[in-house]
Amino acid sequence: MDALEEQAGRLYDQKQYPEALDIYLSLAKKYPKTEKYSIFCGNCYDALGQTEEAIRYYKKASKINPVSTTSLLALANLYYNNEDYKAACKFSNMILQKSKNNVSALLILGNVAYCQKQFDKAFALYEKVYHLDGSSYIALINMANTCYDLGKYVKAVDFASQAIRLYSSSVDAYIILGNSYTELGKLEKAEASLLKALSFRADNPWIYNALSRVYQKMEDYKSALSFAWKSVLFGGNVQDDQHINFGYLLYECAEDGKEELAKHYARKWQEAFLDNKVVEFMAGAVLEDKKIKKADPHYIEKIFDIFAIDFENTLKGLDYMAPEYVAESVKKNFKKDFWKKTNYLDLGCGTGMCAQKVKKYIGWSTITGIDLSQKMLDQAAQKGIYKRLEQVEIVGFLERDMQEYQLITAADVLTYFGDLRSVFEGVASRLELGGLFVFSISENLFTTDDFLLMPSGRFVHNMDYVMTLLKKCGYAKLSQERKALRNEGDKVVWGYVVAAEKVIIIEK
Which of 1, 113, 213, 443 has the least C-beta neighbours within 10 A? Predict the structure, then answer.
């Protein structure tokens, strides 16, 4: 038995999991009352991605030795790693019933709370671990990271510094330290901390990204773009977040008067990532590519997945008013007494901000929302106002949907389309005669072109083009109001809120 066990252990340590599993299965069968063999069978199955079998053997081990917490901890970790947070909490709490100060179980509960953005709860659990074990590097690094997310940057610096005293080559601690100093405006200290992190992990794209932020705040765009470029190269095609960050940096560089520098990197970016749709669109926006007629759907999905959780709080800081203005236009123009029931379609519904405001003005209604970002739809679902939510592209949905609607809205959505014909025709195909289409549109104050793609990745439109196209697609304008739709940096984005009624059917 000892020789077989040693052989299985060597194979397991060498990550030869199928071979190790064969031996552990035979040992578990021969010695059915030995807990550790069932646990190792579970470990091998977990490493091979066979979750159900791993769970079965961990539960078997728990029955063999009900007093032990080892199998329960394996279950808690497995469920946590598979993002089944409810089950992870269940088994962690079972451990705490047996051993109330089990630091591993407390850490898992803290990690679950952190992943669910319950940062205060997460911090309290990490702090308890630290009180139980003052030498816990993991507790310190997690407290530092949680304080950063809570905006408590001074405390984040303190905990990260303590973590470094325990583990002097901690990349995570130096990254947290650097990011916290950045938020505190201590840019030289931020630079030094992040360069130290880079000395340990020169292939980590997020360190280059963090350094680019530091240099941007120093108004050193040459260095900022140099480091951001390395973050993109190390991230490769698979890390869309790095590409999106790089695209926004190019936009901000162009906005700050460094157009040629931004365009230089945009061209390099396109050449290096020829098949990347996010790169194609964002670089094209910086290069003022007039061939682009609408934003890339994959790009839209990714940026709004990233912003979904904090979307509404972010918009408050931008004086974002499009949903309110669209709702006011619906109130003025929608003939709710004409319809027995309103079928209402919210295009690019996001988190449901527009429909939530419109709903009170349309009477008895059924609301459908569509959006490209599933994470935005998840937020919208929490409002409880939609009967149907679909993750889908707008034009494709309008072409295949069989419903007829009396009201369709698009708040801050058409800014991702240059050529509006397909949208206007699609909406008209789904609107009942006499139905209302209310939308916001950003105004082209820069050229006489029908539409213009800005470096931000948003389109602005000439209102003569918009009104002419509406008429061609079978609408009559009911109202057109010029509004300050939101802020973008230190500038006001001006546009219009338009209400149009479908008055004729246009045959294609």
Answer: 1
